[in-house]
TrEMBL record:
Gene giving rise to this polypeptide: galE
Enzyme Commission number(s): 5.1.3.2
Enzyme class: isomerase
Domain of life: Bacteria
Pfam family, any one: Epimerase
Xref: InterPro entries: Epimerase_deHydtase, NAD(P)-bd_dom_sf
UniProt name for this protein: UDP-glucose 4-epimerase
Signal peptide: none
Naturally occurring in which organism (per UniProt): Profundibacterium mesophilum KAUST100406-0324
UniProt cross-references to SUPFAM superfamilies, sorted A to Z: NAD(P)-binding Rossmann-fold domains (SSF51735)
One MF term in the entry's GO annotations: UDP-glucose 4-epimerase activity
């Protein structure tokens, strides 16, 4: 596939770019900062500038595309990860502006040019727990995509707005548009550095629902989204299947969620961040776990 990937120079984006390139896709990374990775073309552009987005989608993606003499080929898909990645990096209004205007521009241009598949990054923060002022608890467990999304912070608000825009553009265009509510992204090197502290103090993971997504598995998730057509507008939770702490499910419920309804029986290490929909519709399963990375440190 010929894919435009935005934000491919970021923590998550670099792994997604590498995964897609390794699968043989032609990947163009649209970002303010080049990635410089083998097999990935870099294109410097600002997603908040609509003209730049439209122009990027109508450009040659490398000199090799000049050779056939048949004009600029169309993109098969857009994977949109570019964003201000959390609160606290810019003033709140700027975070909201960049994330919502940038996503609107991507959706408008991609659907306007008839690109049939768009994947956008949403976030675990839409559930209102991660960046809450004080403690917020989920309304029920495990936390699935039907859970209410009522966040308090500018970053999560922008992601809720982007999901609404994506649903509207899908209805108007008929394209497949999938929004990924990505949990805390963990790179391979993060396991040895960060997880011993999580094993010592599980409360450090409360705001992430004790969940995580290995960056390599995120690449596989995006790949499955590109492979599975015909789902229209979909929202998917994206996380690994196990907790990021050593305590089992029941121990975590008793300590952190004693009053929260549990809607079904859960496995002893099963994540509270439910990915049943992804398994059912995308046939996706993660391949990496902190348990394997750290051996038997449980």
């Amino acid at each position: 596939m010929r894919i435009l990937l935005t934000g491919g120079s970021g923590k998550a984006g670099a792994h997604v770019a590498a995964h897609l390139a390794a699968e043989g896709h032609k990947v163009t990374n649209l970002d303010l900062v080049p990635l410089g990775a083998e097999g990935v073309e870099d294109l410097r552009a600002d997603i908040t500038q609509g003209g730049q987005v439209w122009g990027a989608l109508r450009m040659y993606a490398g000199f090799d595309e000049l050779e056939p003499g048949t004009g600029v080929p169309s993109y098969d898909a857009v994977v949109h990860l570019a964003a201000v990645p959390r609160i606290g990096l810019t003033p709140d209004g700027e975070c909201y502006r960049v994330n919502t205007v940038g996503t609107y521009n991507i959706l408008e241009a991609a659907t306007g040019l008839g690109i049939p598949k768009i994947v956008i990054a949403s976030s675990e923060t839409v559930y209102g727990v991660c960046f809450a002022d004080g403690e917020r608890l989920p309304e029920y467990l495990p936390l699935d995509e039907d859970h209410p999304t009522v966040p308090e912070d500018s970053y999560a608000m922008s992601k809720v707005a982007n999901e609404a825009a994506a649903r509207s553009f899908q209805r108007r265009s008929g394209a497949d548009i999938y929004a990924l509510r990505i949990n805390n992204v963990v790179e391979p090197g993060d396991y040895a550095r960060d997880f011993p502290a999580y094993l010592a103090d599980p409360s450090l993971r409360r705001r992430n629902f004790f969940a995580y997504i290995d960056a390599r598995d995120l690449g596989g998730f995006v790949s499955r989204c590109l492979a599975v057509d015909g789902l229209g507008y979909q929202v998917f939770n994206v996380a690994n299947e196990d907790h990021s702490v050593k305590e089992n499910t029941q121990e975590l419920i008793e300590r952190f969620y004693p009053e929260v309804p549990v809607r079904r029986e859960m496995g002893p290490a099963e994540s509270f961040y439910d990915t049943t929909r992804a398994r059912r519709l995308l046939d996706w399963r993660p391949r990496h776990s902190w348990r394997g990375a750290l051996g038997r440190m449980t």
